[in-house]
Structure formats: structure tokens, C-alpha cells
Amino acid sequence: MNDIYKSIGLFIDGGYYAKINEALEEHFSLNINVAALMMFIRQQVSLLSKSACADCHITECHYFRGRYRVNDANNKHLLFSERKFEDSLIENDVIFHYKHLREIQKDGEIAVIEKGIDVWFALEAYELSIIRKFGYVVLITGDADHEMLIKKLKTLKIHAILLTWDVANDKATSTAKLLRDEACTHIELNKLVAADTNLRIRLCKSK
């Protein structure tokens, strides 16, 4: 492979990504524009690698999320919004990975359980990084459980980038300190958009 070409693997924690979108919608009536976010990532790798953006490409993008079975999603009026979001993933060549959510009784209330997604996320990211030989891996997540994934990626001599967005100091979108400290590069979108209103306009679209 040409040494100039920078291959990027992008892995999205769908639960975390959804929380960012929910916070953006609540505070600003905005949603993330998937295509704009991917271009932003290419531009950031271009700056890090001192390469032309045209030589930096997201060669694979994977999205992981737990979701309701069809009848439950229909009862909760989620089918249209889920399908609309999936359309945006397909249009940007994002591969999505789903496992069914489970609802259990906990302390007299119904709790939604998402089992196995974090492990699947980590295993897929690590395996594909070995096979595809990414130069850069971008993780969109705030979960401390992925600290070890970043450690393992670094043993492969891959530049691990953590991309987060703490929207309006919303606790649901906060990032674990262990994860921040372990990443080779931490891109904090909340700080970047606060300093550059035009960036937020580029990355988001009206709800």
C-alpha cells in the first residue's frame, strides 16, 4: 500500500452516539450529520498525519447498538425514526451491528438491558484492525470498558483516536477519565464547537 495513503477504521458506540443526538436535540434542536462527521474525521487525521485530506480515507465504519424487537419498537413508536437513521448509515457505507434489547423487572420498575454490545464492539474493532491494518482507528464512545481496547490497538502500533462530545455538560454524554487518558489523541467536539460556531453548523442539521 502507498505510504501516503492513510487508512482509517471508525467504530461507533451506538448507545453513546444516541445520547449525544438526544442531548443535541434537547438543547439545540439539532442532530449529527453523519456525512459531515466523517469528513471532519478525515480532516483531523489529515492534520495529525500531516497529509492531504484526499489521502485520508475511512475505509471501514461500524456502528453497534442494542435495539428493540419489531413489535416493541412499533409499540414505542420508534420504527420510523430507527429506519430514517439507518438510511443515513447506509448512505454513508456504515455497517451496523445490532443485538436485541431485553426488558427486565428491577426494583418494581422495567429496566432495559443491553448485553454483549461492548464486547462485540471491542472484538470487532481489534480483529478488523489486525486484518485491515488501519493506520488510525477512531472510537466514538465514552465507556471506560474500552480502555483495554485502546491499549491493545496501541500494541498493534495503531494511532487510537477517541472522539467525544460532552453536550452542554450532559452527564449521559460524559467521558470516562481512564479512556481519555489512554487514547493517543482525544478530540473533544464540545470544546471545538464552543470555540467555532461554524463547526457546529457544519456537523449538525436541524431536527
Defining traits:
46% helix; two-stranded antiparallel sheet; 207 residues; 9 helices; globular; alpha/beta; six-stranded parallel sheet; 10 strands
Describe the protein:
This protein is 46% helix and 28% strand. It is of the alpha/beta class. It has a 6-stranded parallel sheet with strand order 4-3-1-7-8-9, with helices on both faces. A two-stranded antiparallel ribbon has the order 2-10. Strands 5-6 form a two-stranded antiparallel ribbon. Helix 6 links the parallel strand 7 and strand 8 (159-164). Helix 8 crosses helix 9 (197-203). The longest helix is centred in the N-terminal third of the chain and has 16 residues, at 34-49. It is globular, with a radius of gyration of 17 Å. The termini are far apart.
Query: Mind telling me the C-alpha Rg?
Result: 17 Å
Mean pLDDT equals: 92
The end-to-end distance, rounded to whole angstroms, is: 41 Å
Number of strands: 10
Strand order of the largest sheet: 4-3-1-7-8-9
Topology:
Layout: E1 6-13, H1 14-28, E2 30-32, H2 34-49, E3 56-67, H3 70-75, H4 79-91, E4 95-100, E5 102-106, E6 109-113, H5 117-132, E7 136-140, H6 147-155, E8 159-164, H7 177-182, E9 185-188, H8 189-195, H9 197-203, E10 204-206
Parallel strand pairs: 1-3, 1-7, 3-4, 7-8, 8-9
Antiparallel strand pairs: 2-10, 5-6
Helix pairs in contact: 8-9
Short description:
The chain has helices at 14-28, 34-49, 70-75, 79-91, 117-132, 147-155, 177-182, 189-195, 197-203; strands spanning 6-13, 30-32, 56-67, 95-100, 102-106, 109-113, 136-140, 159-164, 185-188, 204-206. It is α/β, with parallel strands linked by helices and 207 residues long.
